[in-house]
């Protein structure tokens, strides 16, 4: 028996936020001083580094569990299965439900329980729980579902990755321009079909790296210092990722037994275009190869960094041929990889 992604679904928010939206923002540095560059120059530099031209924010009435539900409904519809047959619902996020106009996170009950409730699933044997694993959360949810199925604890799992980062950003921090909202969902199933998950890799670096991404006070010193927002040490994350992610990717591929030449696509967390390109380039250098053309699909240009939602959204777009020139055929091998808060890294190889 093999473990395959039988269907996928996503929710792309309708509110488009382009870089000119930030023209009038009061950006400060970590010391509370106004930035020397104009906002237009700051946005231009960000686009050159990250590739982000625009991002998506959810409408005011929606929360993370709401958009996770919509993505799940789409995945279930595409699979044409009865929700009552799900053994697990695993919801990857990092900040819970944060309602518009507030900063308080609500994770009781869990977001997975809320999705199960929204889907009107009565079966108590369908176990619902959340995963907090930074940006690699959806991928870690897939790895956990894979483990459950490998040992006979499940036959069918729904794995969701959703986030509304627009609700937890510091509007005085230029890094706020990176973040976005979105949701993706996948249904994994035990099947007699060929392919599926071939190998997995997962690691947590916490001795020196745990707080590279953290909650911190606003860069505006006039605001309440006890109110916290998402913060990151960008340079440290960049150096950490370039050192450790390619090695994890190589370990995962080597475990699979697949020759590196058979990898059709590398689907990496949409964090930063330049960083992702450098990671994938260094990964292929470990095999004394140049990075192949069209190997790394990207949707960050239009969707921004939606954390746990980037990979399932990217996969869904490619499966549905919505990201030219990228497409997948039966038998193609993909390498998924992600890095994020924790600091956590994971990867898995997958044959369509």
UniProtKB/TrEMBL annotation:
<keyword id="KW-0012">Acyltransferase</keyword>
<dbReference type="GO" id="GO:0044550">
    <property type="term" value="P:secondary metabolite biosynthetic process"/>
</dbReference>
<feature type="domain" description="Beta-ketoacyl-[acyl-carrier-protein] synthase III C-terminal">
    <location>
        <begin position="254"/>
        <end position="350"/>
    </location>
</feature>
<dbReference type="Pfam" id="PF08545">
    <property type="entry name" value="ACP_syn_III"/>
</dbReference>
<dbReference type="GO" id="GO:0006633">
    <property type="term" value="P:fatty acid biosynthetic process"/>
</dbReference>
<protein>
    <submittedName>
        <fullName>3-oxoacyl-[acyl-carrier-protein] synthase-3</fullName>
    </submittedName>
</protein>
<dbReference type="InterPro" id="IPR013747">
    <property type="entry name" value="ACP_syn_III_C"/>
</dbReference>
<keyword id="KW-0808">Transferase</keyword>
<dbReference type="InterPro" id="IPR016039">
    <property type="entry name" value="Thiolase-like"/>
</dbReference>
<feature type="domain" description="Beta-ketoacyl-[acyl-carrier-protein] synthase III N-terminal">
    <location>
        <begin position="129"/>
        <end position="204"/>
    </location>
</feature>
<dbReference type="InterPro" id="IPR013751">
    <property type="entry name" value="ACP_syn_III_N"/>
</dbReference>
<dbReference type="Pfam" id="PF08541">
    <property type="entry name" value="ACP_syn_III_C"/>
</dbReference>
<dbReference type="GO" id="GO:0004315">
    <property type="term" value="F:3-oxoacyl-[acyl-carrier-protein] synthase activity"/>
</dbReference>
